[in-house]
Amino acid sequence: MLSPDQAKDRCEALIRRALSAGAEAADAVYVANSSESVTVRLGSLEDVERSESEHVGLRVFAGGGSASIGSTDLGDGALDELASRAVAMARLAPPDPFAGLADEALLMRSAPVDLDLDDGAATEPAQLRRTAQEVEEAALAVAGVTNSNGGSAGASRSVFALSTSHGFSGGYAASGHSLSASVVAGEGGAMQRDYAWRSTRHADDLPTAAEIGREAGERSVRRLSPGRLRSGSMPVVFDPRIGGSLVGHLIAAMTGSSIARRASFLLDRDGAKLFDSAVTILDDPHRLRGLRSRPFDGEGLLTAPRALVDKGHLTGWLMDAAAARQLGQTPTGHAARGGSGAPHVTTGNVTLAPGTLTPAELIADIADGVYVTELIGSGVNGVTGDYSRGASGYRIVNGEIAGPVAEFTIASNLIDMFAALVPANDLEIQHGIDVPTLRIDGMSIAGD
């Protein structure tokens, strides 16, 4: 794996080759990753995985057309061939009036403060195995746990670099560390499974193996002997672990490409009030050690914090350069790149701001409702906003969490769900999208 500076040099060299081959404009990306993980099951080594990948991608514009091509061979001869083939492909491609590099005036000229994404730690396989054993042992020690799907520990490091023909060149490295456990409680047909996991940039930020293992075990035991829900309309409360998926549906509908294709349930709602005025959703790509932090986007634009929803109001679309041209607007610094292909839209670290009520206060007036801890399936229509997911969790009876329930479906429309959403005050920063406990009244339940 190259260093960020070496990766930038390779990208710049590929750009020079593309221009020499006849490209009118071009950008090049370098994407590399190395990772290692160890899984232990019932005290024995179950699996060891190690992967290394290194890829360079080139996008060129010539004669009104564009083409993208990639290679895992970074040698000079391979780059020569890559450039010539990409230009030949672009000249044969149909014209695309929206394709092209981002406006030069928008390029990042100075990086934000160091985002501290790489801890430089080298984790030995033996240490990963010890940690995997510790997390599984902690889960198996919980009374009621009867079996294990395994405890896992992993470490990774990645490098990303981007160069363009109109003056941008940047790169950065990031580390990753993860820990998880998945165990089974109960016997025979009454068995229930659950899990716990965390992922961080720095190893020092991970919870202990004992904490993760204990959480996995306790979650599994709490799910034993689930009952069934009656069908009808009732309040639904989303556990923070799965509530972030609702914000994910919002983000997908906010992408400029979806709006340009008129394939979003948010069409014609720019600036509209979707949520209660107490709801604000923030995107921060500059959070120190953030899982989705990055100094620049996939087109060389400076990333910046912004509100996606401000006091209940939608603040606009998330756009790469192509979508911005289609919509007659300005790109927002949300472009992302893989090893090949055109940019797509992604966000940084997203949080739904906490409310004022504790989770206990949030559910105190619910006489009959459900607390959802797991969602199943993908029944969400991004065009209409219709929402239907299989679920499991716990009954809420007279303001208290009661016994587990399973095999039911929750349904509504995302527009209605957003309008009814009320957040608790228990926000914790753990993932790429973080939310507190969320309550939505009036959802349809299909049970018995």
- The number of helical segments is 9
Order of helices and strands: HEEEHHEEEHEHHEEEHEEEHEEEHEEE
Could you tell me the number of beta strands? 19
**Which radius of gyration do the C-alpha atoms yield?**
24 Å
Query: Largest sheet at a glance?
Result: 6 strands, antiparallel
Mean pLDDT: 96
Tell me the span between the first and last alpha carbons. Answer: 55 Å
Please estimate the helix content.
Answer: 10-25%
Sheet with the most strands: spatial strand order: 3-2-1-4-5-6
Report the uncertain regions: none
Structurally, the number of domains stands at: 2
Portion of residues in beta strands equals 35-45%
User: What oligomeric arrangement do these chains adopt?
Assistant: single chain
Specify the structural class: alpha+beta
- Approximate shape: globular
Domain Metalloprotease TldD/E C-terminal: 231-447
GO molecular function: metallopeptidase activity
Biased composition (Basic and acidic residues): 212-221
InterPro entries: Metalloprtase-TldD/E_C, Metalloprtase-TldD/E_cen_dom, Metalloprtase-TldD/E_N, PmbA, TldD/PmbA_N, TldD/PmbA_sf
Keywords:
alpha+beta; PmbA/TldD fold; five-stranded mixed barrel; 23% helix; globular
Show the helix and strand layout.
Layout (H helix, E strand, L loop, with lengths): L3 H17 L4 E17 L2 E19 L2 E7 L4 H17 L32 H16 L4 E20 L4 E17 L6 E9 L8 H14 L9 E7 L1 H15 L1 H5 L20 E4 L21 E5 L2 E2 L6 H7 L7 E2 L7 E2 L3 E4 L6 H5 L4 E13 L5 E12 L2 E14 H7 E3 L9 E2 L3 E9 L2
Parallel strand pairs: 7-14, 13-18
Antiparallel strand pairs: 1-2, 1-4, 2-3, 4-5, 5-6, 7-19, 8-9, 8-13, 9-10, 11-12, 14-15, 15-16, 16-19, 17-19
Organism: Novosphingobium nitrogenifigens DSM 19370
Pfam families: PmbA_TldD_1st, PmbA_TldD_2nd, PmbA_TldD_3rd
Family: Belongs to the peptidase U62 family.
